[in-house]
Design a protein that fits this description.
The chain is of the alpha/beta class. The protein folds into two domains: about 130 residues, Rossmann fold; about 80 residues, Response regulator (Rossmann fold), CATH 3.40.50.2300. The strands form two sheets. The chain has a five-stranded parallel sheet, sandwiched between helices. Helix 2 links the parallel strand 1 and strand 2. The N and C termini lie far apart (about 40 Å). About 0% of the residues have low confidence. Belongs to the bacterial solute-binding protein 2 family. It comes from marine metagenome. Its main location: other. It is found in: Cell envelope.
């Protein structure tokens, strides 16, 4: 979480230096689903960092897994007149209209973890997150070594339409290809970043 804390601190330092009024700096945070463990940890970390800073107001919006709600959240944050919006895309394509509203209003956008599509990338000022493609390649290397270069596997994915899901999948498949691995991917199934769903999907794969 160090990178998240560092990014958040830099955001506020920049805003404070550019601000010439005594009003609290408003930062909007649009999250796809606070029910996802990783998103919950990121959000709680950002809240903790914001609480350490004077004259900072962090407004957290939870889409609850509904992309229409996330677009509405971005529009709501824009209407509230926030100074900057951080967002994690639920769907890299469908989120763009909400980003355009904020961008057209002159509000800086910062992407976290999941990026929007190419059109959306032109709208944001920065991105903080891992290299998901490389993570997929590393996963392929580990799997290849663990299985001795051959075997049958299934992929339990996050949410469809997210850059994290797509890039990790592509990295994993490309990684196996570069290794000339005989590992066969039997199926892909989404679990929407939900551990309970992932457990159920895993059990279904094992028993069928």
């Amino acid at each position: 979480m160090f990178k998240i804390k560092k990014l958040f601190s830099l955001i506020f330092i920049s805003l404070i230096l550019l601000s010439f009024n005594a009003n609290a700096i408003k930062v909007g945070l649009s999250q796809p689903n606070l029910g996802w463990p990783y998103i919950a940890v990121v959000t709680n970390t950002l809240i903790a960092e914001a609480d350490k800073m004077d004259d900072v107001e962090l407004i957290v919006m939870d889409a609850g897994g509904d992309i229409a709600k996330q677009v509405a959240d971005l529009e709501s944050l824009t209407a509230k007149g926030v100074d900057v919006i951080m967002f994690c895309s639920l769907d890299g394509n469908a989120i763009v209209p909400g980003l355009m509203v904020a961008h057209d209003a002159g509000i800086p956008l910062l992407a976290i973890s999941n990026e929007p599509n190419e059109q959306g990338k032109k709208l944001y000022a920065g991105f903080s997150g891992p290299d998901d493609y490389v993570q997929g390649v590393i996963a392929a290397e580990i799997m290849h070594e663990a299985l001795g270069g051959k075997g049958n596997v299934v992929i339990i994915e996050g949410s469809l339409g997210q850059s994290t899901t797509d890039l990790r999948n592509n990295g994993f498949k490309d990684g196996l290809s570069k290794l000339n691995s005989d590992i066969i991917i039997l199926a892909n199934q989404t679990a929407n970043w939900d551990p309970v769903q992932a457990k159920a999907v895993t059990e279904d794969f094992i028993t069928t």
